[in-house]
Amino acid sequence: MEFLRRIFSGDDGPSGKQIQRAMKQVTQIHGEAATRVAAMERLASWKTPEAVAALLRRFTIQTPQASMDLEEKQYTVRLLAEMGKVAIDPILKFIRSEPDVTFPVQALSKILSPDEFRECLMELLADFSTGYTRWPEAKTVLIANLPDDAHMEVFDTVTNFLEDEDDNVCIAAIDYLVSSEDESIREQLLQIFFDSEDRPRVRGRILDHFLEKEWPVKGYRKRMEEAVALPFYLTSKGIIKRKTG
Asked: Is 131 left (phi over 0), alpha (psi -120 to 50) or beta?
């Protein structure tokens, strides 16, 4: 029936079996690179949401040769970008459900205008900030890709991730907020520092930023004197420094 429907409707799109066959070739870890690439190009030529979803599966595997794996993933980004708007919804679904979203986010940035891309990241992060996410890695990638000129718009959303249970997500939020050059984040970081007694990586990153910015610990000096450990120390002016040598 599907065969007849396509004949009489004039629809020359791929069948489900064709897409499945191509996806199987795309995800063959130990297969020939030429076979994978040919299947990737075939999927891209079909320009359907189903073909996009199958092409995105290339990001779920890693081939033995790291340099070739990277080249193929970068080529997949290019193919997705060339597919245009039809790729947007499948990419968003992938980002919401998969752990490794670095390359799909890159593809999205090439399809959307800068304003559209910013809005899209904000919506995704807002969803992630209020619901359970199996893969925290996605949040880290999304925060890292926020444009520098979006600080005011995303401040509240990114601030929510300062309390994320995953260290990498928390650190990504810290780095982005500090990059705004807005000293109002100072007291929030100090509070996160005190709440992170069992998270040395988070504490270390906060101290690194205080050291770089030369922010004082005004209002929290006594608590910081008790909490700061070598190689960091507190000066008489309440500035974080690092011992050398």
From this structure: beta
Helix, strand, or coil (residue 169): helix
Q: Is 84 helix (H, G, I), strand (E, B) or coil?
A: helix
Say what the pLDDT of residue 117 is.
95
pLDDT in tens, 65-93: 999 999 999 999 999 999 999 999 999 99
Element (H, E) at 25: helix 16-26
Per-residue confidence (pLDDT) for residue 9, from 0 to 100 = 39
Q: Is 6 exposed, middle or buried (0-12, 13-18, 19+ CB in 10 A)?
A: middle
Distance, in Å, from the CA atom of 87 to the CA atom of 127, rounded to the nearest integer, reads 20
CA 184 – CA 45 distance, rounded (Å) = 50
- Distance in Å from the first CA to the final CA of the chain: 77
CA distance 102 to 58: 12
